[in-house]
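Re: that chain you flagged

S.,

Sorry for the slow reply, it's been a week of failed gels. I finally had a moment to sit down with the sequence you sent. For the record, here it is as I used it:
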Amino acid sequence: MNKVELYENERIDNLDINGFRIIQNPFCFCFGMDAVLLANFAKIKPNADVIDLGTGTGVVPLLLAAKSKGKSWTGLEIQSNMVDMAKRSVLLNGVEDRCSIIEGDLKCVRELFKPAQFGAVTSNPPYMKENTGLKNPSDTVYISRHETLATLEDVVSAASYLLKTGGTFTMVHRPTRLPDIMETMVRYRLEPKRLMMVQPSEGREPNLVLIEGIKEAGKECRILPTLMVYDADGEYTKELLSYYGKN
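Prediction finished late last night. Pasting the structure tokens below so you have them in one place:
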């Protein structure tokens, strides 16, 4: 691992996979379980070039690189402070030869990339519509959680443009947005193929959904068994721990 400069309030966290680490600032948006689930759920071919839309501090590209899912990894992020942390995390892990972070607006992918340039697209986009919750547009956390700078349709449209025919789009989102998600993906020719709910514990409603679409594929969607986070004793389930690489 390489040495990199840390700024005020920053720390280095262990990703628990092949020694990979990430720079985070607790006063900004730190990654959570949804990013780990997304990186595990994504089926990516070994020779695929992968791009993560709205990458934040670059956690999904780093997790995919640590797992050797794909050939190269790109993270696209609009917030300069997050881009800076992500770039230093890439250097920290010594993967700058095959992992890059680009500062840019996903609504402008047509100006940044060629069409059908990638074999896989991932995204952990803002879950909440712009007019919900407490508003502070200058707050990194608010921007990361609300559709202030990009909507669901912006994300899906960008993914469709970037993907090769047969390429995969994998996203984590809220189950309450499923009607919008399914309709938008189909409209942009990303046919839903796999769907998995994530449920906090027995008897509670799912609070996350993982969904995969394939560009220009036929109409058939598999509903996978629900992933339970906590068991009856309030401990993480074995399946959930396996996503973190723990027995």
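What I noticed first: Residues 80-92 form the longest helix (13 residues).

Talk soon,
D.
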